[in-house]
Protein 1
Amino acid sequence: MRIVSLCPSLTELVFALGRGADLVGVTEWCVHPAEGVARVEKVGGTKTPDVRRIVELAPDLVLMNEEENRREDAELLREAGIRCHVSMPRDAAETAAMVRSIADSIGSPEAGASVAADIERRIVEARLRADGKPRVRFAYLIWRKPFMAVNGDTYASALLELSGGENVFARHAQRYPEISAQELAAAAPDAVLLCTEPFPFQEHHADELAALTGLARHRFEIVDGEYLSWHGSRTPAGIEYALSRIEAARSGVSAA
């Protein structure tokens, strides 16, 4: 089978399902597993794919994500007679269903069932660990200039909510709302999680936000965006990581 993946987390999933050798094209942003993707032709970016080259590669299937990739590119590929699998899981349970669907599409149903079952087991464990404990009010920031957060209709928020968090911007009308330092201060989250992607937040940015908002510096933490926003084979580890960050924040709140 010949597969093109236009989403980094889906590329990682294909390798985890044992079908990495079937990949004939991936994006420039597909970096995991490093040794595996190094051998695969790059066909542009997630939003700038070389559609003509993809068609020339004659894939049996192109894996796409509704948010990462553009609808017009999917339409062009379909017009060229190429089958596209487009997904967009918004939480861990939907990710498990997506894994099964993709695994079936690429001929690895058993491997997919195993990964999906692991996700579902971790969901149950996360709920048990969070049950009865105080919710941790958090803000999850993905961008600077302007500052941008996530609302409740996002995978990262869902993972943190599953782990015992409560997104202070969950009900915002925009999935990725622009927020001011004043709005962040007014929301008074217990934890402000600064993601390493798409904007690479660093410790000095946490210092900056603490000064701008007047919130205590210990409330700010740099968190790994790959664990909290890559859905697929990384989801089991992502759930555990989300739990660790929420539990650490809860300990900080209790100590304060």
Protein 2
Amino acid sequence: MSGATLEPIRILIVDDHAVVRAGLRMLIDQNPAMKVIGLAGNRSEALAIAASEQPNLIILDILLGDEDGLTILPELRGVAKSARVLVLTGLRGGESQRRAMLAGAMGVVLKDHAAEVLIKAINKVHEGEVWLDRLMMGGLLDEMTQASEVDPEKAKIASLTDRERKVIALIAEGLKNKQIGQRLFIAETTVTHHLSSIFSKLDVSDRLELVIYAFSRNLAKIPQKATRPGNSPTNI
């Protein structure tokens, strides 16, 4: 028998609650086949650690304070290209699971599942398998199939978060990033992150394309008020 041993699965935990991060680390580090290589509580920490440590697997909470975990999922996959993402959530609604998979997650585990379920999910996702319970899988496949058969753009629009939809509507009104941040009570940099995610999800390249797309897909209402000659209805 060879004395060679397999390298442990290198895991990054992204959750905005310190107690949850610590608990997950204790649970995972008990398994000799796994090793937690980083803990992050927000987007900037997660991206920095993912880029420097290049984990094999990222456990990502959907809710990160005032940030949407699924919004940063594509960014995490961009800086840690070989990492697979396992979403951890307390939300039971099918919408969050569907958004997670459309954003590139390989699996979803509910926080009220047993610890053994999380360990098994980590192993399966690391091996390249999708991890969803049967109820989630059935509903997800039905919705994705129906969306693709009716209109491929529906999948793009369905991946938008509620916050991203609000940002789109405000952009269509002509608001700048700073104004949008003030309206939604979020930082201007957060608006920029949302906008980057929106461009990626909808496959548009600038604000003008986004406004046109929003009007054509009923994501925003076309202004009805007449404008003076030389003035545009939206300040994009």
